[in-house]
Amino acid sequence: MLFNSLDFLIFFPIVTLLYFIIPRKVRYLFLLAASYYFYMCWNPRYALLMLLSTAITYFSGLLISRANRIPDPRARERQKKLWVWLSFGSNLAILCVFKYLTFFLENLTRVLGLAGVAFQAPAIDLLLPVGISFYTFQALGYTMDVYRGDIDAEPNFFRYALFVSFFPQLVAGPIERSGSLLRQLREHQRFDGLQARAGLVRMGWGLFQKMVIADRLAILVGAVYNNPAGQPGSAVALATVIFCFQIYCDFGGYSNIAIGAAQVMGVRLMDNFRQPFLARSIQDFWRRWHISLSTWFRDYLYFPLGGSRKGTGRAIANNMAVFLVSGLWHGAGWHFILWGGLHGLYQGAGRLTLPVRRRIRGALGISEENPVCRLAAWAFTFSLVAFAFLLFRANSMSDAALLIRALFLDFRPEALLGGGLYELGLDRQDFAAAAVSVLVLILSDLLQERRPMGPVLERQPLVLRWTVYLLLIFAVLIFGIYGPGYDAAAFIYFAF
After folding, report:
1. pLDDT tens-digit series, residues 264-280
2. Catalytic choice (188, 290, 330, 343)
3. What is this structure's pTM?
4. Kindly report the CA angle at 248 between 243 and 251, in degrees rounded to 5?
5. What is the b/e burial string over 196-221, where b = at least 16 CB atoms within 10 angstroms of the residue's CB?
6. How is the chain split into domains, by residue range?
7. Which of 20, 103, 300, 463 is placed for a possible disulfide with 332 were both Cys, Cβ 3.0 to 4.6 Å?
8. Does the CA dihedral 39-4-253-341 come out positive or negative?
């Protein structure tokens, strides 16, 4: 069930209405049933995998909590680590089988072939369960939080199951922390008209991002990236820049719909994006992009590895490990791993060159806040991010090689002149609509950078507020990509 589907348009109001009508004592049970129904609309069998992950991490939490009562400190810590390792090992094993087994066997076949060993990997046809990477990480975060003593183990299995499966953020995040979401699920939520209205507006903005911007830009991006052979570098460059906005609006749109839907129901989810393309460094970009995942890796991988406590070299190595794992998390493909590794190199180079850059600016008397310096930092950061996204979007390493070769050795800007631009899937009208909608997005982000627009809008006169609401609705209805002959596009991150 997609957020941009008629099914969800029917499902969400009914669930929300019933949620606030039924007795408070059973609300979480109703919401749990609705969440499992939401997930089972894709494939009922894969709900069993989510239930298995839920059961493993739930009982691990209880066993860790019980181990805390062991008097001997060494025995206590040994028991706690045992249950943590069993929780992580079993959940990651499930994730690896469904997401990475085919990738591993293919590469094993290649390696053995190079060594002269004949090996034919068995044919394995496993469909990737939607959202498995997200709910697995959320459940594992709970295990680690209980182990660290940040939270108490949740005694109610069904409430914990709701924490893992809460439908707004189930399939693509945000990856919530147990200390926040579990606490809210224990509370009795009251209907708040102002919060509900703010949530609906956020959902509307998310639909605008997805249906008006992302799905329209996807047509041009697909025309280039799905046919890389013979593409001029100018088309690759254009499609790559456009893909930056496509994936931002696709995933950011999903996040806004998820956060807005939860807000209507009285639940606050963490922000997942904060104007990422206004970043002026790669480090700043990752403070703004997919925040729930980047902070998850920070808290549960980077810090346990030692963070930056053991010197610059160790910090760079830890950072590289995190980004390589992040790349693999995004997909079973070398181009994803290379994308993550490239971001690790960016951050390592940034850390090593920081003292030199500071000395140069000091010698020249240039402030970091100088407008020219700010613009140059932004342009350089965006260029690095966009180039890395080329690897992310490419369908394979061989496709990525073709695209990079065209970008640097066959640029040919004239290929986009004389109507060539409109041979990439979008006609003049659609291209104009895309350009205007992206400008609206950029303006919105610039305003959001200065102050949150939601509270500002709420303070405006009734007429102005409803003008904005209606413009948003009409934009989605008139300029959204849907209708006969259109297959509603799944959100990009559903594949991860």
Report:
1. 999 999 999 999 999 99
2. 330
3. 0.92
4. 115
5. bbbbebbbbbbbbbbbbbbbbbbbbb
6. 22-108+121-188, 191-273+418-496
7. 103
8. positive
